Amino acid sequence: MENGLISVDRWSDGSQIYFLTHLHSDHTKGLSSQWSKGPLFCSRLTAKLFPFKFPNFNLSLLRVLEIGLWHSISLISPSSGSRKVIKVLAIDAHHCPGAVMLLFRGDFGCLMYTGDFRWEMSSERANKGRIALLNALEDNTVDILYLDNTYCNPSYAFPSREIAARQIVDIIASHPQHDIIIGINSLGKEDLLVHISRMLGLKVWVWPERLQTMHLLGFNDEFTTKTNLTRVRAVPRYSFSIDTLEGLNQMRPTIGIMPSGLPWVVRPHEGDGIHSGSLLTTRYRRSKLNENGRFLIEKQTGKVESVTKLHNYIFSVPYSDHACFSEIQEFIKLVRPTTIKGIVSSSSCYIEPLYYFGRLCGAKQPVNKFHHKKKGTEKVEKNVDIKFVNSKKGTNAGILNAGVRLGRVSALRRVQRGARLPEDDCL
Ligand SMILES: [Zn+2]
After folding, report:
1. Residue 96 Cα, ligand 1 centroid: separation in angstroms?
2. 367 vs 200, which has greater pLDDT?
3. Spacing, Cα 78 to ligand 1 middle (Å)
4. Of 69, 318, 382, 389, whose CB is crowded by the most CB atoms within 10 A?
5. Per-residue pLDDT for 296 more than 80?
6. Where is the domain boundary, 206, 227, 260?
7. 116: CA distance to ligand 1 center in Å?
8. What is the distance in A from the centroid of ligand 1 to the CA of 115?
9. How far is ligand 1, taken at its centre, from the CA of residue 147, in Å?
10. Same domain, 21 and 151
11. 351-379 burial code (b ≥16 CB/10 A, e <16)
């Protein structure tokens, strides 16, 4: 495909048409209510939520992609002026409301962009997704797979969201006298909150804008903005901190639950008694936690013990909207792309996906794990891994400096996602 035709989750380039996989902020960076560069394609649900995030957006630019249907779009070649037809199919990404993966076909071949996705093996929804994907692929070979590689590392093993949701309900039920706060984003984790509401027979408090989103999504009975109606509150992630929890505990016994694929670690700064929380690195996970009794991986069975109490007031439960390593592997076995390009280059553990999956693709496996694309990216990796594990001073320099307020998602996803298809270094 020649350049200048298509951009996915990227808004800075000059393209003829644009695709949005979902409404999380790291995928909309550069998009605004004033944006007018061209038609924007997204799923029906994203289109419904879109004006809420971008009021006064020129809605005549929005184009809906029905999930599971091929759409043909005519474009004009920037170089020759001739007409080109591309076909695109949206597939449920099982990530957050409205999130889709995109499959493109044309004279350029076949490209797939996962956006953020989860690929659970167990649920009925996952089965449907698998069948839809196989039907969509038919006998075509995906030439380039743009992959959500957030957890592209074998140390990231976590259960299905169904199991993690049960664990969260158990934690809440076993603290009947406590108030509960749960850290969430402005979109996503609705199924978890609805499950909590229904299992425990209570409403969940959300902030006013989030209540509007819940209503748009059709959840009318499970949520409230009245604090006196419930002891369970879902709060924005940025306000979820040890400071907040300690303050709340001055008034009422309160625990915090962080639903996240990557456990946090909390430890005191030497001398000052202040806690900081941060990303748990692979090395730390395998060594330090096993020593002090907060095991995350049972050595004998390799099973993941997923709920971790990180602090008097905080539980981390691996309820993740991104695929874990084994799911990524299953997905790649299904798609069998010719090559893969990770879309999360700022991940704390960024590893070139081909390092693990090159053999599955028939592509050459890189010698180095790490994708040395930008010096800045390397620096982030080193800071996370080395400083956190070895620092005796508790300074947690660099990326870790922000303490417990620096959540996993903000650390991994502060860089804009997206691609202009195809990217120059892919072909
Ligand atoms: Zn996302």
Report:
1. 7
2. 200
3. 32
4. 318
5. no
6. 260
7. 5
8. 7
9. 13
10. yes
11. bbbbbbbbebbeeeeeeeeebeeeeebee
